[in-house]
Predict the 3D structure of the following.
Amino acid sequence: MKPAPVIFTFHKIREQSEQGNGAAWRALLDFYGAALFRLLEIHAAMSTPEAFLIVQQTMARLSGNKFEKLRATSRQSEREFLGDLRGLLLEAALGSAAFKETSTHGNPFTSEKITKVLDGLPLLHKEMLLFKLGGYTEQTIERIMRLSPRVAEKAFERLSGEYQPVRQLQQDRNPWPAAWLAFVTQVQVLKTEHCTPAHEMVRIHDGQVSWYEKEPVEKHVSECLRCLEAWTGLREVGYWRRAADPLSSSEIERLMGVIPVEKTPAKNRSFFARLRR
Ligand SMILES: [Zn+2]
């Protein structure tokens, strides 16, 4: 008798992957794997084979030691979970051999310099500038924000001198990936007890919060580089979750190789293939 089809949702994936369920891990890679590749392509300026190694490493880390890292990720919402995954991924990219030798001399992405570039701007403009500094073209920023970056045209004028290369980007790709990855990773040390939890950011992005609740949070995010980075990161993962083309089943199978789950018989694999979008 055929087993009843399992329809995976975020909550099911999150719950069952930490129990070592192979089908849940395949669904995790199917739902979220492609977004991870896009993030590496942009923030780390990596090719697909380079990115593959980092995604593989991140999956191994997430599932290692009885799924310890996975257990520490958010179980509340998909975007919060993806925000956690993004952090692990970019950290792994920074630690990769590709960036070991890269000098960050003349670093354009010190906290001081970025704070100065953003200083005094409204939150929306800060967000757009941070996406730009992260390596995004204006076309993609428009799709992520659902708003033309032309509203921040004046703010973009601040990207002169050493930031000129990000203004002229033809594709979504950071011109100084080593320095950028160091920035997004190191900005985490600025976290204090006053920082905004990811779930509050997600609620605001989804318009579920009144102006009175929103105002103090947005004020903090606007003034805290750590929270601004997390804030744009959550928008970014939400966008790529929808927009990235899913991985092929052979890519998923290759990534499954590093995850300690019971090997699924071939007939269940074809069953999984039917569930794919
Ligand atoms: Zn903060």
